[in-house]
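cron nightly-structures :: item 1 of 1
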Amino acid sequence: MQAEQRTALVTGGSGGLGEAIARALHDVGHTVLVVHSPGNASIGAWLEAQTDEGYNFIAYGADVADHASCQELAGLIQADGYHIDILVNNAGITRDATFRKLSYADWDAVLRVNLDSVFNVTRLFIDGMLERGWGRIVNISSINGSKGQFGQTNYSAAKAGMHGFTKALALEVARKGVTVNTVSPGYLDTKMVTSMAEDVVKQVVAGIPIGRLGQPGEIAALVAFIASESAGFMTGSNVSMNGGQHMY
């Protein structure tokens, strides 16, 4: 059954997982806006390639770690005549190092992009959702926000913080028809993972009971369900999809 058409915004929407999420939401009939980093020189070619495959996205450049940039983003979206019904906070970066070698700059960058962005973007669209009495917010966390990961104190802290945000906001907006949930993927077949050293990737896969990396489309299908009418009774949840690597 075709979903009621809504407008969705996906941050980090031109990356591996973000692209899959944008496509999944488009497939069920939503208008999909994607946010990419300012100055992304490849966005034009990416949009053209998506159009060639039947996906018509609207793209906006914004620094989601910067509150003022997000305010400008919201203004552009409003000026273009869109209101956001579905928000997927997917933008994220890694700057890995053991804690004793971790610089403040790398701590700050990861916390700002991965966690501050969730406040920056959500804050600008939550009021509209509440006024209309319907909304879906999906925060993309990580397996490492639950189990931790060597060399990722910054990333693990940010991803754990996302779910704390989810639970608190879910309580505040539940009676207004807005749900807030977290999705925590395991290791996926994306550039972020496959660009690691081959022996490291093999070690990762060896620790996954299903015996393979996850596919971005599998996570995207889950996100599309959480954003649907059928998931209206689901809020404050952290849904893990990690091939059995971390069960809790």
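cron nightly-structures :: done
The chain has a mean pLDDT of 96.
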